Amino acid sequence: MSEACEVCRSPAVVQFLVAVAKGINERTIAPPSVLLGSWDELQERRRNCALCEAVISVSQRIFTDEQLRGDDDTMVKSATCRLSWNPHRYREGGKSGYSRVEIMMDVNSGPPTGPVRSRHHCSVANAFQIYMAKREPNQRPGERSTTSLQPRIRKDTYDPNLVNDWLGMCEQKHGDLCIAQSVRAISKLRLVDVKNMSVVQFSHVIPPYVSLSWVWGKVKAEDGLTDFNSSEASTRGFLNQVELPTAVGDAIMLLISLGERYLWVDFLCIIQDNANDKQTYIPQMGAIYSLARFTLIADGDLGAQGGLPGVRPGTRTVTGMKKQHFIDIDGLLVVSCLEPEIRGFRRSENRPPWGTRAWTLQEKLLSPRCLIFNSDQIHWECLQASYCEETAFEHLTHGCEESAYEGLRHSLYSGPSSIRSVHSWMQESITEKEKIHQNFHRQYTYLASEYNSRRLSLDSDIMNAFKGVLETISDKSGIRFFWGLPCSLFEQNLLWSTYDRGEERRKVEGIPTWSWLTLKSATVVNALEDPYPGAAIRCFKRADCPPGTAQDSFQLHQISQERDYPQSLSLLSPGQSHAKMIQAEEISSVTRARIQPSYHIIFWAETLDVLWSADNQESYSCSGSLLANPQDADAIRAHGLKIDESDPKAPASARILYERTVFDPRGDFCSIGFATIHEACREKKQKIPCTLIKVLTENARRNRHTPQHTRALLITEERGIAVHTGNARIGHELYSCIPWRQRLIVLG
């Protein structure tokens, strides 16, 4: 097979590849893309052209047969293929970088003899890396370049020397920058001794160890450390008698080859059938991963059964569509990347199991150093750098590549975007306080939403699997959490959303309905997405009874921390002080008896009784309209909503609201907004009586980026105790026209 066909060796293609090889700064003097031809033409040339063969092979690895074929079997036949820029930047300064090649497809869909029915674009990002094959002027034979990337041939098994090089570079160059700071100390810990194949208990002085993040899959807890075998676990050779999961066995083999002695893995270091042991170690998971020398991540396609691909021969796929292609074109080396990414189609749900599990999020985020094993290659990620097996760029003098997780991990440990202590705000300017506060809520929003989109085998683990992240954030920021919600701007954080999806409640007792933890895939909304949103309520909780205190003692503690930091947070929440406080004497004795400590939240609120009506009467949709009752409808209509149609300054949203309320076809009711209720509240009913809660003040500042609505809370009540029913959206202008009525709410 010749290295390249006439098309792929053309001046236009070569010029494009040279520019890509030289880096991002060459992008301005090279064409943004270069045409290779139609899909059919590439298929014809692939027999005699290594580049055409590689383009088709990489594309087929990414796209499914259905995506390539289309409904009428003509989509790909009419597609044209181009190579385009796919820039990457190094972290340090963001000025230097390198580029990869992206495969672009312009697809026309339609019958062979008929008109084009539709057009769309799709692409394969990170498809190829281009290297300068010629040596630099001052480069000696066999010497690494310090200014250009170098390829690495992926082998059937990983290279222990490469891993030790990465670890050594991190320890020598980064030092304390890649060590978790201010982590709670661990007083005792079990570790696997890979030399003696036993499980050893350490107290006070914990030796250096490596941790493992993996997915259990079908592994059974009773096959690990139990009360029955824990007494003999410290015996030399104990693990030789245990049938270990593939991932755990591979981790032990890896540590032996790297010269490491101790491994922490939950399967063998926590007694699986002992509730007290779990209660001791699960809350320390954050510290355990943070203090590990580095963390092994089993991110292969087969999960626990696949182990750590590359540790044992034959566990990597290095042929077929996953083959690493090398093509020489006029002194340029074109190498296919091992992890191409699809763009233009919805991502496949067939992601490796590790990236879909809830437990693994905190294990990755809280590990300052990670060695990641996926199906094709290994990666190294620390707080200062990211390396991969297929491309050697750790030797470059001007920086290293940034990974997707590093921004979040920097926020937990170091860097300009770090989550900083609230106590330091007193020394900052008002602008800096605002930036710190916004950064905290932005990071929290992303973390909570990402976590809640992942899967748990046991719903009862919903709090435990996130506790390490919350405790780390709390240690760094000084902000406490209450059932997953930060006590900073606590009231605003009650307005999490299901975004028009009626989410299913988790089958676990003890989680209050006002916490996003109770709903699968609920999305946490940034409390500061609207600038300076003041809260119209102030939440309290019943305090836990201290030892020796009468059980009928009833004391209230304010949840929100704004009171603790008035000089900073009050600047961010004008109107917060107008929320009505609450006294224990205002709660009836009957209601008091039903309020549980650290569970229910109690507050005075301005409310409105409404009727939720499903938008689609023929289906059981959880999205619908909010209707004001007849006794309130006239007051809302008469409350200044009439506008002068000729006034050019009249806001469009006010006109729409005026038309909806005055000309609403639903009789005596009037529509005031929209709401999504939870699936459990739906109960196949078309209309549900609810109560609307005013959470945000009317004077919350807005800007042009703010949607034309204000978020509110929806509840239903039974015997004096309310439950969270859904999330409402009320138009800005209508929000101040509602005849609110003040009531005491107990929400559980």
Key attributes of the depicted protein:
748 residues, 3 domains, 8-stranded mixed sheet, 7-stranded antiparallel sheet, globular
> Beta-strand level of the residues, as a percent range?
15-25%
Q: Termini, distance in Å? A: 71 Å
Assign a percent range to the helix content: 10-25%
Largest sheet: 8 strands, mixed
- What is the overall silhouette? globular
Number of strands: 28
Uncertain runs: 70-77, 89-96, 135-146, 344-349, 397-411, 413-430, 563-577, 640-645, 649-666, 701-706
Rg, Cα atoms, Å: 30 Å
Oligomerization state: single chain
| Total discrete domains | 3
Structural class: alpha+beta
Mean pLDDT score:
75
Strand order of the largest sheet: 7-6-9-8-10-14-15-16
Number of alpha- plus pi-helical segments: 20
Could you walk me through the main structural features you see in this protein, from its secondary elements to its overall organization?
With 748 residues, the protein is of the alpha+beta class. The chain has three domains: 11-132, no CATH class; 177-320 and 351-404, no CATH class; 422-747, no CATH class. It is 24% helix and 23% strand. The protein is built from 20 helices and 28 strands. The strands form six sheets. Strands 7-6-9-8-10-14-15-16 form an eight-stranded mixed beta sheet, with helices on both faces. Strand 6 and strand 7 form a beta hairpin. Helix 10 (359-365) runs parallel beside helix 13 and helix 12 packs across helix 15. The longest helix has 23 residues, at 430-452. About 15% of the residues have low confidence.
